[in-house]
Design brief:
Chain B: Pfam families: SBP_bac_8. Chain B: Keywords: Signal, Transport. Chain B: It comes from Streptomyces endocoffeicus. The complex is a heterodimer of chains A (296) and B (460). Chain A has 296 residues and is mainly α. Chain A has two domains: 75 residues, no CATH class; 204 residues, Orthogonal Bundle (MetI-like fold). Chain A is built from 16 helices and no strands. In chain A, helix 5 packs across helix 16, helix 7 packs across helix 10 and helix 11 runs antiparallel to helix 12. The N terminus of chain A is likely disordered. By secondary structure, chain B is an alpha/beta fold. Chain B folds into two domains: 216 residues, Periplasmic binding protein-like II (D-Maltodextrin-Binding Protein, domain 2, 3-Layer(aba) Sandwich); 205 residues, D-Maltodextrin-Binding Protein, domain 2, CATH 3.40.190.10. In chain B, 49% of the residues lie in helices and 15% in strands. In chain B, strand 1, helix 3 and strand 2 form a beta-alpha-beta unit. In chain B, helix 1 packs parallel to helix 4, helix 9 packs parallel to helix 11 and helix 19 runs antiparallel to helix 20. The longest helix of chain B is centred in the C-terminal third of the chain and has 23 residues. Chains A and B meet through helix 4, helix 8, helix 14 and helix 15 of A and helix 1, helix 3, helix 4, helix 12 and helix 13 of B.
Chain lengths: 296, 460
Amino acid sequence: MTVTTTPTRPTVTEATAAVRRPRRPGPALRARGMVRWLWLVVLTVVVGFPVYVTLLTGLLPPQEVAHGTLLPTRLTLDNFREALRNVPFGQQYVVSVLVTALQTGGQLLTSSLAAYALVFPRWRGRAVAFAVIVATLAIPGESLVIPNYELVTGLGLRDSLLGITLPFLAAGYPVFLLRQAFLTLPREVWEAARLDGCGDLRCLFLVVLPMARPQVTAATLWSALAAWNGYFWPLLITDSPDRRTVQVGISQLVNAESTSPGVIYAGTTLVLLPTLLLVIVGQRFLLHGLARTSPR
Amino acid sequence: MRRSASVLAAVVALTALSGCGDNGKNDTGNSGRAPGPEALKAAKGPVTVTLWHGLGDTNAVALQKLVDRFNAQHRGKIEVKAVYQGQYPDVLAKYTAAIRDKSTPSLLLSYDISTGFLHDAGQTVPAQDLAEANPGTLSLDDIRPAARNYYSAQGKLMAVPFNTSMPMLYVNDDLLKKAGLPANTPLNTLDQVVAAAKTVHRKVPKAGGLVQPFDTWWIEQLTAAAGVPYCGPDNGRKGSTASSVKLTSPQQRKAIGAVSDLYTSGAGLDTGEDGSNAVTAFQQGKVAMMFNSSGAAGKIKEGADFPYRALPYPLSGPAATSGPVVGGAALWVNGPGHGAAEQAASWQVAAFLASPASQEEFSRATGYAPINKKVEALPGQQKTLAARPDLKAVIDQFNKTPATTAAAGCLTGAMPTVRADVLGPIQSAFAGKTPLDTALKNAESAANRDIDRYREQAGQ
């Protein structure tokens, strides 16, 4: 208050200087701060530059794309128009969102149930069960494509939303993530809840999951990103353009022998935005969740 | 994802083949003769033809337009549903999964190097049989010999070429001038191109002499343009499909060595595997000459603001036997699991798509060379060619390319894996890390292992 009412400039400087001086860090600390800031700037550039190039290239006319312009003088929405003209992105967006929601929801449900069973109730063979689940992480996804294809087709679920998501309703990694998270929770709370007559499902949903919120968010993000970015499986199991996901749509912007980079970048931007928003909104939980899963 | 998908395509191809080993020998996939127009007449109600393809962007739009026109002309009789099934390798992966599942499409547009596999899989009816059973639909003599040659096995046309491209030489005239090379410098042979590239590199600071995408296709092209087969025996075209790959013949050594020398000496520009990067470097005026597909012509035009020319791909062997190999994709009519009416309807679609009018329109929209020779006789075509010298150059090259064993390219179902495995050693040699002779030997043995494995799986 006194500072703002002080009439002359020198006094302001003096006053702030007087206030700050005792708190000013030593040269060593300041240097470390500088290094940290520089490091952050470098990281920001490394992460931000590709996003910038993607967005920018999507907005450039073809000649400028060829010349690798980074500070454009002319921007156009033509590439976005072309991308939207060639691929039914609107409908495919809806499919992608539904697939992501269904797949993430399914994975979260199955993995929290599994993780709960692996951590809280004591039963013979749960170490083996956990080992088997972890072992599934080592199976390459490619080797599962044909069996999955035959199963889903056998069930008559080809070209359907359920067909796209069915093989991925359960996954090993979120089970692992949540099991590690549940292990760090105080067992006493669970025991108390059980003593109070809480059933297993209520324990999971009302006691355990709320306590592990950061890791649940991390698992959600992991599942959602994997679902959103899926390409080969949704392509294989669907036939109609309007039952396909945006990732399949994007590949249709690629022209085998003479690609227009601008159009592809425009399409990529359209598909990238939701993922980017999800990460920006959820990053606090993502970082926190990942950090907390390490054994303490 | 892209890469894993193409590797997957190769893996799945093997699995699918081993699942249909017996079928593999029956190359008609049909017990009797190919169905003719009477089968279509006998059909009750409209026949649906599913067409799977891997065309994206403007190519897909142009194809859909043709399909819409066909549907309008055949309303109530035939209905075509064109479905994009991912990029070419994805299409093949999906198709192979469909073979196991007995849910193949009626008509498949599949890329050049899947020809060997599709031939072995025995799921399709040879185009030649269908053409004979359906007189007046498509005269096979109208198909450009180079394209017909590529999609033939034992002299029989297997599939109808639809979109075909060829390798070309693109020349930045400004850079040649800056290097003091006269405008009429001959660039017909590989030696002439290499000499010009060296001159540009020596005389124009910072300019590259030649760029070619780092893709095995270009090694196959150098081989065919040297007049020698890539595979033995006879590129797999005469008796059975190929059983070995050859990369170390003296002619190949000379041609590949000439280009590799450009790279190790710095006169060649390395822009990676993607042909689009080479186009970008060319448009930026960073390099005087570029080997690239004729399919890239449209995009080059969009972004190049200097005079340039499209010239035939330079030869290093005798003109009578050497010539580049066509690329692109062809239409395969599926037999097993599809009724006679459906097969006959599929053939109608293939014939329509290969007709002069369709080919003219598709070529104009996409820059692919029309595969039908009769297109030249259409009134609009001469005007189009006058305005598009690059397209004219491709067509001239098509007409000049002899239908020889070397120019037919290799026919083997292992082609996708061969292509993937030859790339590494060659890249290493072009980067100067491995001596070329060692690299060629390594690539050859890797490719032969692929072929052996494939043949074993396919029961050949």
